[in-house]
Amino acid sequence: MSSVHSDRPQATVPPGGAAGPRAEPPIRLAILDDHELLLDSLASWIEKNAPDFDLVLRASSWLELVHSDAFPTDLVIMDLQLKESVSIGARVRTCRAAGAKVVVLSAVDTPEDRDAALAAGALAYVTKSQPISELLSAALSAAGRGAGRTAPAPTAWRPKPLIPQSARPRLSDGERQALVLYADGRTTSEVARAMNVQYETAKTYLRRVREKYGKAGRPTSSRADLIRRAAEDGYLT
């Protein structure tokens, strides 16, 4: 992952007057693509030419994205096809459940792929043959933001290690199913309906999941934390 920290000047108040209106902060952006050349070139271009975005995370795998402390970001630009066996629908729904908007970038453009991405909640689908200006326009539209901010400066990054089997709590079938459904964006009531169980039963499953991960030293205080744990342990496929 790449965490990028910006040293932006603070707004000042002119002598004898009030400060002008404060500009909106830049859009916290993540890029997910397992083609390193494209990932690096797109990240470099955005850092130098797109001041509306603060590129806080670049990831070459799905696990790296959701495992990062910077996740969720405001927006994720993700490649349609990854080497990992995680569907585009699952990836988009997971990001949306965590609070991140999604733009899908693809080398192919079939109705099936486009429909799957948009049906899962992606706000735009852009092919790699389109100009980068169109990608950035789609990203700005998805984020609902304007222009005129200062570009961030990149820093070094390194991926985090995978979670060893010994650190994975042993979940029952019900607990694992509840975790996957909740990480996919469902409320506790919706989890209960999908599992055909009572609300209190679904709530108990999720409570036990949090307790087991807590005992394993892997906190799950938020939905984003639960999404990380589910992804780390291979449940989001």
Largest sheet: 5 strands, parallel
What strand line-up does the widest sheet have?
Answer: 2-1-3-4-5
Radius of gyration: 19 Å
What name goes with the CATH superfamily of the largest domain? Response regulator
Helix amount:
40-55%
- According to CATH, the fold-level topology of the largest domain is Rossmann fold
Overall average residue pLDDT: 80
**Overall domain count:** 2
The CATH C-level class name of the largest domain: Alpha Beta
End-to-end separation in angstroms reads 20 Å
Low-pLDDT stretches: 1-20, 146-161
The shape is elongated
Q: DSSP helix count?
A: 9
Overall structural class, as computed from helix and strand content, comes to alpha/beta
Tell me which CATH architecture of the largest domain applies here. 3-Layer(aba) Sandwich
Order of helix and strand elements from N to C terminus = EHEHEHEHEHHHHH
How would you describe this protein?
With 237 residues, the chain is of the alpha/beta class. The protein folds into 2 domains: 27-143, Response regulator (Rossmann fold, 3-Layer(aba) Sandwich); 165-232, Orthogonal Bundle (Arc Repressor Mutant, subunit A), CATH 1.10.10.10. The chain has 9 helices and 5 strands, in the order βαβαβαβαβααααα. The protein has helices at residues 36-49, 62-67, 88-98, 111-120, 132-143, 173-183, 188-195, 199-215, 223-232, and strands at 27-32, 53-59, 75-79, 101-106, 124-127. It has a 5-stranded parallel β-sheet with strand order 2-1-3-4-5, with helices on both faces. α6 (173-183) crosses α8 (199-215), α6 crosses α9 and α7 (188-195) packs across α8. The two termini are 20 Å apart. Mean pLDDT is 80; it is low at 1-20 and 146-161.
